[in-house]
Amino acid sequence: MQHIRWLAVVPFIGMFIGPVLHNSATPFILGMPFILGWLVVWVLLTSAIMAVIYGLDPVRLAPEEDAP
Predict the structure, then answer these.
(1) Residue ranges making up the domain that contains 10
(2) Is residue 51 in a domain?
Protein backbone atom coordinates (compact mmCIF):
# COMPACT_ATOMS: atom_id res chain seq x y z
CA MET A 1 0.00 0.00 0.00
CA GLN A 2 3.03 2.27 0.18
CA HIS A 3 2.79 2.71 -3.58
CA ILE A 4 -0.16 5.04 -3.09
CA ARG A 5 2.31 7.77 -2.13
CA TRP A 6 3.65 7.76 -5.68
CA LEU A 7 0.42 9.55 -6.59
CA ALA A 8 2.06 12.68 -5.18
CA VAL A 9 4.30 12.74 -8.27
CA VAL A 10 1.32 13.10 -10.63
CA PRO A 11 0.63 16.81 -9.87
CA PHE A 12 4.32 17.63 -10.26
CA ILE A 13 4.37 16.02 -13.70
CA GLY A 14 1.07 17.62 -14.70
CA MET A 15 2.11 21.13 -13.73
CA PHE A 16 5.47 21.01 -15.45
CA ILE A 17 4.79 18.93 -18.54
CA GLY A 18 1.53 20.61 -19.65
CA PRO A 19 2.91 24.11 -20.27
CA VAL A 20 5.93 22.68 -22.05
CA LEU A 21 3.78 20.67 -24.44
CA HIS A 22 1.26 23.39 -25.20
CA ASN A 23 2.68 26.89 -24.95
CA SER A 24 -0.09 28.95 -26.50
CA ALA A 25 -2.37 31.76 -25.36
CA THR A 26 -5.16 31.30 -27.93
CA PRO A 27 -7.35 28.58 -26.35
CA PHE A 28 -9.11 29.77 -23.21
CA ILE A 29 -10.27 27.91 -20.11
CA LEU A 30 -12.90 29.87 -18.17
CA GLY A 31 -11.63 33.10 -19.71
CA MET A 32 -8.00 32.44 -18.81
CA PRO A 33 -5.18 31.63 -21.20
CA PHE A 34 -4.62 27.90 -21.54
CA ILE A 35 -1.46 27.74 -19.43
CA LEU A 36 -3.00 29.61 -16.50
CA GLY A 37 -6.16 27.50 -16.72
CA TRP A 38 -4.04 24.33 -16.86
CA LEU A 39 -2.20 25.32 -13.68
CA VAL A 40 -5.42 26.23 -11.85
CA VAL A 41 -6.92 22.85 -12.75
CA TRP A 42 -3.80 21.09 -11.48
CA VAL A 43 -3.84 23.02 -8.20
CA LEU A 44 -7.39 21.76 -7.63
CA LEU A 45 -6.45 18.22 -8.69
CA THR A 46 -3.48 18.31 -6.31
CA SER A 47 -5.86 18.88 -3.40
CA ALA A 48 -8.02 15.96 -4.51
CA ILE A 49 -5.01 13.67 -4.99
CA MET A 50 -3.60 14.55 -1.57
CA ALA A 51 -7.01 13.82 -0.01
CA VAL A 52 -6.97 10.37 -1.65
CA ILE A 53 -3.44 9.72 -0.39
CA TYR A 54 -4.47 10.77 3.12
CA GLY A 55 -7.57 8.60 3.01
CA LEU A 56 -5.67 5.50 1.90
CA ASP A 57 -2.55 5.97 4.03
CA PRO A 58 -1.96 2.73 5.96
CA VAL A 59 -0.08 4.52 8.76
CA ARG A 60 -3.14 6.68 9.46
CA LEU A 61 -5.41 3.63 9.41
CA ALA A 62 -3.22 1.61 11.80
CA PRO A 63 -4.49 1.39 15.37
CA GLU A 64 -2.67 3.64 17.81
CA GLU A 65 -0.73 2.08 20.66
CA ASP A 66 -0.97 3.77 24.04
CA ALA A 67 2.36 4.89 25.47
CA PRO A 68 3.04 3.76 29.08
Answers:
(1) 2-20+28-58
(2) yes
Interval 16-63: pLDDT, tens: 887 777 776 678 878 888 888 888 889 999 999 999 888 887 777 677
Given a contact cutoff of 8 angstroms between Cβ atoms, the answer to whether 33 and 23 are in contact is: no
Q: Whole-angstrom Cα distance, residue 8 to residue 45?
A: 11
Q: Is residue 43 part of a domain?
A: yes
CB atoms within 10 A of CB 42: 20
Return d(Cα 6, Cα 8) in angstroms, integer.
Answer: 5
The number of folded domains in the chain is 1
Is residue 64 in a domain? no
What pTM value is reported for the model?
0.73
